[in-house]
Specification:
This protein is mainly beta. It contains no helices and 30 strands. The protein starts with a strand and ends with a strand.
């Protein structure tokens, strides 16, 4: 079905620039506010209680941000923040309006096509694609479940308009899918478990690159996570970061891939600690650990090989970081809380070095931010 939402039509943008691979070293620098500007924002209608607010996820090369906000009823609504700061909000027809229901915009490409998913009043997930004219098409991956907690989760869109994500079947098992020109292909990574909570899960926001490589992780029958990348021809390569634990809830989890095929993510060691990693195209792994952090979690790698993410300090506070060829700069949004579970959480970065994300204030409310070099 189709329906118009997000009333503003956005302009067509140029394609992403070429990519440079990165080499990591271990050096941390303090953040200099004079080198950047940070705009903070709240989507109209965002709630102001703990657990509510504005949560940006994706940014394209024109600086247009996509994400969702949580209202006073704890329902989700999609939004776009244009490069001039104007925020457009909307809901896919069929979205539920109760707590934990609604529309979640998840990924935006260079031509302003947008994908995500919505949760209906029965708690079922459904995928959607918004084209450049602002028209929404909804879709279901074959085999998707139709009861609460199951369905289709669309989470990535590349410059060609290809979509990637995963679906949850009636038994609670995860399976990957890609959609090219409206044709949906489903897949399971060899070794993925077949019980509830197991299976094949793609990453989100920036886990499908221009050549059609889709990355994520699969959960085996022992509850251990392992990374994978699926090429456009269907070839799947699996991997485990050195040092990844082998018990339930441990292993390798992926969060981003750029057009060169360089992958970032985290691995969880045998002690349950999170460490960042970057996987180069030659198969080389390099750890990313912010000095002094108890947990380092990369979120994305851009066209120039710059990595952004968050780290958690010994008090449980979130802080942003940027890794440029191994030089780590830490970042905190103005207004970010300093208590456990609060702080700064970057989501993504574009080719121009802009970083979007959100911060959680001292009252537990989320607010969007956009950092511009």
């Amino acid at each position: 079905m189709t329906s118009p939402i997000f009333s503003a039509k956005l302009p067509t943008l140029p394609q992403p620039k070429a990519i440079v691979c990165l080499i990591l070293c271990a050096l941390a620098l303090s953040f200099s506010a004079s080198a950047t500007s940070i705009a903070t924002f709240n989507a109209p209608g965002a709630g102001t209680a703990a657990g509510q607010g504005t949560e940006p996820l994706a940014i394209n090369n024109a600086g247009i941000v996509a994400g969702y906000y949580i209202d006073t009823n704890s329902a989700f609504h999609g939004f776009l923040r244009e490069s001039n700061g104007v925020i457009v909000t909307g809901d896919v027809t069929g979205s539920g309006t109760g707590a934990g229901q609604g529309t979640l915009a998840y990924s935006i490409n260079a031509t302003n096509e947008l994908t995500g998913f919505y949760i209906d009043s029965n708690g079922v997930y459904h995928g959607f694609l918004r084209n450049t004219a602002g028209t929404i098409t909804t879709f279901e991956a074959p085999g998707s479940g139709t009861v609460a907690g199951t369905g289709t989760i669309s989470a990535n869109i590349n410059a060609s308009g290809e979509v990637g994500g995963y679906y949850i079947d009636a038994n609670g098992v995860d399976h990957g899918f890609v959609a090219v020109n409206g044709t949906i292909t489903t897949f399971d990574v060899t070794g993925a478990g077949t019980a509830s909570g197991e299976g094949t899960v793609t990453g989100g926001v920036d886990c499908l690159n221009t050549s059609g490589q889709l990355t994520g992780d699969y959960i085996d029958s022992n509850g251990v996570n392992h990374g994978f990348v699926r090429d456009a021809d269907g070839t799947v390569t699996t991997f485990d970061a050195p040092g990844a634990g082998t018990a339930s809830g441990q292993g390798t989890e992926v969060s981003g891939i750029n057009d060169a095929g360089t992958i970032v993510g985290i691995y969880i060691d045998a002690n349950g600690a999170d460490h960042g990693f970057v996987l180069a195209t030659d198969g080389t792994f390099t750890d990313i650990n912010v000095p002094g952090a108890q947990s380092t979690e990369p979120e994305n790698i851009n066209a120039s090989g710059v990595i952004v993410g968050l780290y958690i300090d010994s008090s449980g506070v979130n802080h942003g970081f940027q890794d440029t060829s191994g030089t780590i700069v830490t970042r905190n949004a103005p207004g970010a809380g300093t208590g456990n579970g609060q702080g700064t959480l970057p989501s993504s970065n574009n080719a121009g070095g802009q970083i979007d994300g959100y911060y959680i204030d001292s009252n537990g409310v989320a607010h969007g931010f956009l950092l511009t070099p």
